[in-house]
Protein backbone atom coordinates (compact mmCIF):
# COMPACT_ATOMS: atom_id res chain seq x y z
CA UNK A 1 0.00 0.00 0.00
CA UNK A 2 1.25 3.50 -0.86
CA UNK A 3 2.23 5.40 2.28
CA UNK A 4 1.15 9.02 1.86
CA UNK A 5 2.89 11.79 3.75
CA UNK A 6 1.97 15.47 3.94
CA UNK A 7 4.81 16.30 1.58
CA UNK A 8 3.92 13.63 -0.96
CA UNK A 9 0.34 14.90 -1.00
CA UNK A 10 1.66 18.40 -1.66
CA UNK A 11 3.50 17.12 -4.73
CA UNK A 12 0.37 15.38 -5.99
CA UNK A 13 -1.72 18.53 -5.51
CA UNK A 14 0.82 20.66 -7.37
CA UNK A 15 0.97 18.16 -10.22
CA UNK A 16 -2.84 18.06 -10.47
CA UNK A 17 -3.40 21.83 -10.26
CA UNK A 18 -5.17 22.97 -13.43
CA UNK A 19 -2.91 25.17 -15.54
CA UNK A 20 -5.60 27.77 -16.34
CA UNK A 21 -4.63 31.29 -15.27
CA UNK A 22 -1.54 30.11 -13.38
CA UNK A 23 -0.03 28.62 -16.51
CA UNK A 24 -0.87 31.74 -18.48
CA UNK A 25 0.88 33.84 -15.87
CA UNK A 26 3.94 31.62 -15.96
CA UNK A 27 4.17 31.86 -19.71
CA UNK A 28 3.77 35.65 -19.88
CA UNK A 29 6.56 38.22 -19.88
CA UNK A 30 10.24 37.93 -18.99
CA UNK A 31 9.60 35.81 -15.89
CA UNK A 32 7.59 33.33 -17.96
CA UNK A 33 10.34 33.17 -20.56
CA UNK A 34 12.96 32.52 -17.89
CA UNK A 35 10.94 29.79 -16.18
CA UNK A 36 10.21 28.16 -19.53
CA UNK A 37 13.97 27.82 -20.08
CA UNK A 38 14.28 26.14 -16.70
CA UNK A 39 11.43 23.72 -17.46
CA UNK A 40 12.95 22.88 -20.83
CA UNK A 41 16.34 21.88 -19.39
CA UNK A 42 16.83 18.19 -18.62
CA UNK A 43 18.18 18.56 -15.09
CA UNK A 44 17.28 14.99 -14.24
CA UNK A 45 19.78 13.68 -16.80
CA UNK A 46 22.52 15.03 -14.58
CA UNK A 47 20.62 16.61 -11.71
CA UNK A 48 23.58 17.23 -9.44
CA UNK A 49 22.00 15.49 -6.46
CA UNK A 50 24.68 12.79 -6.53
CA UNK A 51 27.51 15.10 -7.61
CA UNK A 52 28.31 16.18 -11.14
CA UNK A 53 31.33 14.57 -12.76
CA UNK A 54 30.68 15.97 -16.22
CA UNK A 55 32.56 19.27 -16.51
CA UNK A 56 30.65 20.03 -19.70
CA UNK A 57 27.30 19.92 -17.90
CA UNK A 58 25.44 23.22 -18.23
CA UNK A 59 22.88 22.84 -15.44
CA UNK A 60 24.76 25.35 -13.27
CA UNK A 61 24.63 27.93 -16.06
CA UNK A 62 20.87 27.47 -16.53
CA UNK A 63 20.21 27.88 -12.80
CA UNK A 64 22.60 30.81 -12.37
CA UNK A 65 21.30 32.78 -15.35
CA UNK A 66 17.67 32.05 -14.47
CA UNK A 67 18.14 33.53 -11.00
CA UNK A 68 20.02 36.49 -12.49
CA UNK A 69 17.23 37.16 -14.97
CA UNK A 70 14.54 36.97 -12.29
CA UNK A 71 16.51 39.40 -10.14
CA UNK A 72 16.87 41.75 -13.10
CA UNK A 73 13.12 41.79 -13.62
CA UNK A 74 12.75 42.87 -10.02
CA UNK A 75 9.53 43.84 -8.23
CA UNK A 76 7.34 43.84 -11.32
CA UNK A 77 8.00 40.14 -11.76
CA UNK A 78 7.08 39.18 -8.19
CA UNK A 79 3.50 37.99 -8.96
CA UNK A 80 4.79 35.54 -11.57
CA UNK A 81 7.59 34.38 -9.24
CA UNK A 82 5.04 33.78 -6.49
CA UNK A 83 3.06 31.67 -8.94
CA UNK A 84 6.27 29.79 -9.72
CA UNK A 85 6.44 28.63 -6.09
CA UNK A 86 3.53 26.31 -6.90
CA UNK A 87 5.13 24.82 -10.00
CA UNK A 88 5.46 20.99 -10.03
CA UNK A 89 9.01 21.38 -11.39
CA UNK A 90 11.34 21.59 -8.38
CA UNK A 91 13.94 23.54 -10.32
CA UNK A 92 11.39 26.21 -11.22
CA UNK A 93 10.38 26.42 -7.57
CA UNK A 94 14.02 26.65 -6.57
CA UNK A 95 14.99 29.57 -8.82
CA UNK A 96 11.84 31.46 -7.77
CA UNK A 97 12.54 30.88 -4.07
CA UNK A 98 16.14 32.01 -4.50
CA UNK A 99 15.27 35.16 -6.45
CA UNK A 100 12.52 36.16 -3.99
CA UNK A 101 15.02 35.86 -1.15
CA UNK A 102 17.68 37.90 -2.95
CA UNK A 103 15.08 40.58 -3.71
CA UNK A 104 13.94 40.42 -0.07
CA UNK A 105 10.26 40.17 -1.03
CA UNK A 106 8.40 40.19 2.27
CA UNK A 107 5.06 39.51 0.58
CA UNK A 108 6.45 36.09 -0.35
CA UNK A 109 6.82 35.20 3.33
CA UNK A 110 3.61 33.23 3.80
CA UNK A 111 4.23 31.05 0.72
CA UNK A 112 7.88 30.53 1.60
CA UNK A 113 6.85 29.41 5.07
CA UNK A 114 4.51 26.82 3.53
CA UNK A 115 7.41 25.49 1.46
CA UNK A 116 9.55 25.17 4.59
CA UNK A 117 6.76 23.14 6.17
CA UNK A 118 5.60 21.04 3.25
CA UNK A 119 7.87 20.90 0.22
CA UNK A 120 9.01 17.29 -0.38
CA UNK A 121 12.47 18.37 -1.51
CA UNK A 122 14.92 19.20 1.31
CA UNK A 123 16.81 21.46 -1.11
CA UNK A 124 13.66 23.56 -1.49
CA UNK A 125 12.94 23.56 2.23
CA UNK A 126 16.46 24.70 3.02
CA UNK A 127 16.42 27.40 0.36
CA UNK A 128 12.99 28.61 1.47
CA UNK A 129 14.27 28.88 5.04
CA UNK A 130 17.19 30.95 3.82
CA UNK A 131 14.85 33.16 1.78
CA UNK A 132 12.71 33.80 4.85
CA UNK A 133 15.79 35.04 6.67
CA UNK A 134 16.67 37.25 3.73
CA UNK A 135 13.17 38.76 3.62
CA UNK A 136 12.96 39.34 7.37
CA UNK A 137 9.40 38.01 7.47
CA UNK A 138 9.00 37.84 11.26
CA UNK A 139 5.67 36.00 11.15
CA UNK A 140 7.55 32.95 9.87
CA UNK A 141 9.68 32.68 13.02
CA UNK A 142 7.51 29.87 14.50
CA UNK A 143 7.81 27.93 11.23
CA UNK A 144 11.58 28.34 11.22
CA UNK A 145 11.82 27.33 14.86
CA UNK A 146 9.73 24.23 14.18
CA UNK A 147 11.92 23.35 11.17
CA UNK A 148 15.04 23.82 13.29
CA UNK A 149 13.73 21.30 15.79
CA UNK A 150 11.70 18.87 13.71
CA UNK A 151 12.65 18.74 10.02
CA UNK A 152 13.62 15.29 8.73
CA UNK A 153 16.90 16.69 7.34
CA UNK A 154 19.59 17.83 9.74
CA UNK A 155 20.84 20.16 7.03
CA UNK A 156 17.45 21.86 6.65
CA UNK A 157 17.42 22.18 10.43
CA UNK A 158 20.75 23.97 10.20
CA UNK A 159 19.58 26.29 7.42
CA UNK A 160 16.56 27.18 9.55
CA UNK A 161 18.90 27.99 12.43
CA UNK A 162 20.94 30.28 10.16
CA UNK A 163 17.74 31.97 8.97
CA UNK A 164 16.62 32.57 12.55
CA UNK A 165 19.97 34.18 13.36
CA UNK A 166 19.77 36.35 10.25
CA UNK A 167 16.26 37.46 11.16
CA UNK A 168 17.24 38.30 14.73
CA UNK A 169 20.19 40.31 13.45
CA UNK A 170 17.95 42.01 10.88
CA UNK A 171 20.46 40.97 8.22
CA UNK A 172 18.09 40.88 5.27
CA UNK A 173 19.44 40.57 1.74
CA UNK A 174 21.37 43.72 0.84
CA UNK A 175 21.38 45.95 -2.21
CA UNK A 176 24.94 44.73 -2.85
CA UNK A 177 23.61 41.19 -3.22
CA UNK A 178 20.99 42.31 -5.72
CA UNK A 179 23.61 44.25 -7.68
CA UNK A 180 26.01 41.30 -7.74
CA UNK A 181 23.35 38.97 -9.14
CA UNK A 182 22.01 41.49 -11.64
CA UNK A 183 25.51 42.23 -12.98
CA UNK A 184 26.42 38.63 -13.82
CA UNK A 185 27.52 38.41 -17.47
CA UNK A 186 27.75 35.00 -19.13
CA UNK A 187 30.48 36.30 -21.46
CA UNK A 188 32.74 36.38 -18.41
CA UNK A 189 32.13 32.78 -17.40
CA UNK A 190 34.99 30.22 -17.45
CA UNK A 191 37.81 32.53 -18.46
CA UNK A 192 40.60 30.63 -16.73
CA UNK A 193 43.16 28.50 -18.58
CA UNK A 194 46.39 27.00 -17.27
CA UNK A 195 49.38 28.83 -18.74
CA UNK A 196 47.48 32.09 -19.22
CA UNK A 197 47.17 35.18 -17.06
CA UNK A 198 44.65 34.87 -14.24
CA UNK A 199 41.65 37.20 -14.61
CA UNK A 200 41.80 40.05 -12.15
CA UNK A 201 39.21 40.44 -9.42
CA UNK A 202 38.44 42.37 -6.26
CA UNK A 203 36.60 40.82 -3.31
CA UNK A 204 36.09 41.81 0.30
CA UNK A 205 36.80 39.43 3.14
CA UNK A 206 34.52 38.82 6.12
CA UNK A 207 36.07 41.79 7.96
CA UNK A 208 35.26 44.15 5.09
CA UNK A 209 38.82 44.51 3.78
CA UNK A 210 39.15 44.70 -0.01
CA UNK A 211 41.61 42.32 -1.68
CA UNK A 212 42.84 42.63 -5.28
CA UNK A 213 44.54 39.76 -7.06
CA UNK A 214 46.73 42.17 -9.00
CA UNK A 215 48.32 43.38 -5.74
CA UNK A 216 50.27 40.11 -5.57
CA UNK A 217 51.69 40.19 -9.09
CA UNK A 218 55.47 40.20 -8.94
CA UNK A 219 55.35 39.37 -5.25
CA UNK A 220 53.73 36.08 -4.24
CA UNK A 221 52.15 32.86 -5.36
CA UNK A 222 48.42 32.88 -4.66
CA UNK A 223 46.31 29.82 -3.83
CA UNK A 224 42.56 30.25 -4.36
CA UNK A 225 40.49 27.62 -2.55
CA UNK A 226 36.70 27.62 -3.04
CA UNK A 227 34.88 26.14 -0.07
CA UNK A 228 31.21 25.21 0.33
CA UNK A 229 29.74 26.56 3.58
CA UNK A 230 29.77 26.28 7.36
CA UNK A 231 27.89 22.95 7.27
CA UNK A 232 30.71 21.26 5.32
CA UNK A 233 33.07 19.07 7.41
CA UNK A 234 35.64 19.00 4.58
CA UNK A 235 35.73 22.80 4.58
CA UNK A 236 36.30 22.89 8.33
CA UNK A 237 39.09 20.36 7.87
CA UNK A 238 40.68 22.65 5.26
CA UNK A 239 40.40 25.61 7.64
CA UNK A 240 42.14 23.48 10.26
CA UNK A 241 44.90 22.58 7.80
CA UNK A 242 45.43 26.23 6.91
CA UNK A 243 45.68 27.09 10.60
CA UNK A 244 48.23 24.34 11.21
CA UNK A 245 50.30 25.24 8.14
CA UNK A 246 50.52 29.00 8.69
CA UNK A 247 54.29 29.01 9.21
CA UNK A 248 54.91 26.85 6.13
CA UNK A 249 52.76 29.11 3.94
CA UNK A 250 54.61 32.17 5.18
CA UNK A 251 58.02 30.53 4.68
CA UNK A 252 57.05 29.57 1.11
CA UNK A 253 55.78 33.14 0.54
CA UNK A 254 52.36 31.87 -0.54
CA UNK A 255 49.15 33.83 -0.02
CA UNK A 256 46.13 31.55 0.42
CA UNK A 257 42.54 32.72 0.07
CA UNK A 258 39.46 30.71 0.87
CA UNK A 259 36.45 31.87 -1.15
CA UNK A 260 32.76 31.30 -0.52
CA UNK A 261 29.94 31.88 -3.05
CA UNK A 262 27.57 33.36 -0.46
CA UNK A 263 26.77 36.78 0.91
CA UNK A 264 28.51 38.30 3.93
CA UNK A 265 26.16 36.86 6.54
CA UNK A 266 26.58 33.28 5.31
CA UNK A 267 30.34 33.69 4.87
CA UNK A 268 30.72 34.95 8.43
CA UNK A 269 28.96 31.80 9.61
CA UNK A 270 31.80 29.75 8.13
CA UNK A 271 34.48 31.73 9.97
CA UNK A 272 32.50 31.72 13.21
CA UNK A 273 34.44 32.80 16.28
CA UNK A 274 37.79 31.75 14.86
CA UNK A 275 40.59 34.21 14.27
CA UNK A 276 41.99 33.15 10.90
CA UNK A 277 45.30 34.42 9.56
CA UNK A 278 44.29 34.30 5.89
CA UNK A 279 41.42 36.17 4.19
CA UNK A 280 38.07 34.42 3.69
CA UNK A 281 36.62 36.16 0.63
CA UNK A 282 32.93 36.82 0.06
CA UNK A 283 32.04 35.97 -3.54
CA UNK A 284 28.47 37.25 -3.64
CA UNK A 285 26.44 35.59 -6.42
CA UNK A 286 29.48 33.44 -7.26
CA UNK A 287 30.62 36.08 -9.73
CA UNK A 288 34.32 35.30 -9.42
CA UNK A 289 33.52 31.60 -9.17
CA UNK A 290 31.79 31.73 -12.55
CA UNK A 291 34.72 33.69 -13.98
CA UNK A 292 37.18 31.08 -12.72
CA UNK A 293 35.16 28.06 -13.86
CA UNK A 294 34.10 27.02 -10.39
CA UNK A 295 30.49 26.76 -11.62
CA UNK A 296 28.40 28.17 -8.76
CA UNK A 297 25.09 26.33 -8.26
CA UNK A 298 26.54 23.21 -9.83
CA UNK A 299 25.43 20.37 -7.57
CA UNK A 300 23.68 19.65 -4.31
CA UNK A 301 25.67 18.99 -1.19
CA UNK A 302 23.13 18.12 1.49
CA UNK A 303 20.38 20.69 0.94
CA UNK A 304 22.04 23.45 -1.08
CA UNK A 305 23.04 23.99 -4.68
CA UNK A 306 26.68 24.94 -4.44
CA UNK A 307 29.90 25.39 -6.43
CA UNK A 308 32.40 22.75 -7.44
CA UNK A 309 35.24 22.14 -4.94
CA UNK A 310 38.05 23.87 -6.82
CA UNK A 311 41.65 24.97 -6.30
CA UNK A 312 43.49 27.50 -8.49
CA UNK A 313 47.19 28.37 -8.15
CA UNK A 314 48.49 31.64 -9.62
CA UNK A 315 52.26 32.22 -9.75
CA UNK A 316 54.00 35.52 -8.91
CA UNK A 317 53.85 36.53 -12.58
CA UNK A 318 50.06 36.27 -12.47
CA UNK A 319 49.95 33.09 -14.58
CA UNK A 320 47.62 30.20 -13.72
CA UNK A 321 49.77 27.15 -13.02
CA UNK A 322 47.10 24.81 -11.70
CA UNK A 323 43.31 24.67 -12.02
CA UNK A 324 41.51 21.70 -10.49
CA UNK A 325 37.72 21.33 -10.60
CA UNK A 326 36.27 18.61 -8.44
CA UNK A 327 33.62 16.13 -9.51
CA UNK A 328 32.08 15.59 -6.06
CA UNK A 329 32.26 17.11 -2.59
CA UNK A 330 35.56 15.51 -1.52
CA UNK A 331 37.45 15.72 -4.81
CA UNK A 332 40.45 18.06 -4.77
CA UNK A 333 43.95 18.29 -3.30
CA UNK A 334 44.25 18.85 0.42
CA UNK A 335 45.71 22.13 1.61
CA UNK A 336 48.97 20.33 2.41
CA UNK A 337 49.09 18.81 -1.09
CA UNK A 338 48.42 22.23 -2.59
CA UNK A 339 51.32 23.77 -0.69
CA UNK A 340 53.59 20.87 -1.68
CA UNK A 341 52.80 21.41 -5.38
CA UNK A 342 53.77 25.05 -5.05
CA UNK A 343 57.01 24.20 -3.24
CA UNK A 344 58.07 21.58 -5.79
CA UNK A 345 56.68 23.29 -8.89
CA UNK A 346 55.05 19.99 -9.86
CA UNK A 347 51.43 20.79 -10.62
CA UNK A 348 50.01 17.33 -11.12
CA UNK A 349 47.08 15.93 -9.19
CA UNK A 350 44.15 13.59 -9.68
CA UNK A 351 41.94 12.48 -6.84
CA UNK A 352 41.76 8.65 -6.64
CA UNK A 353 37.94 8.76 -6.50
CA UNK A 354 37.43 11.34 -9.23
CA UNK A 355 34.17 10.70 -11.14
CA UNK A 356 34.96 11.54 -14.76
Q: Could you explain how this protein is built, in words?
A:
- The structure is a single chain.
- This protein has 356 residues and is an alpha/beta fold.
- The protein folds into two domains: 6-176, Alpha Horseshoe (Leucine-rich Repeat Variant), CATH 1.25.10.10; 186-344, Glutaredoxin, CATH 3.40.30.
- The chain is built from 16 helices and nine strands.
- The chain has helices at residues 6-16, 20-27, 29-40, 59-73, 78-84, 90-102, 109-118, 122-135, 141-150, 154-168, 175-182, 233-244, 246-251, 264-271, 287-291, 335-344; strands at 202-204, 210-212, 221-227, 254-260, 280-282, 299-301, 304-306, 310-314, 320-325.
- The strands form three sheets. The protein has a five-stranded mixed β-sheet. A two-stranded antiparallel sheet has the order 1-2.
- Helix 7 (109-118) runs antiparallel to helix 8 (122-135).
- The chain is globular and about 55 Å long.
Give a concise summary.
By secondary structure, the chain is of the alpha/beta class.
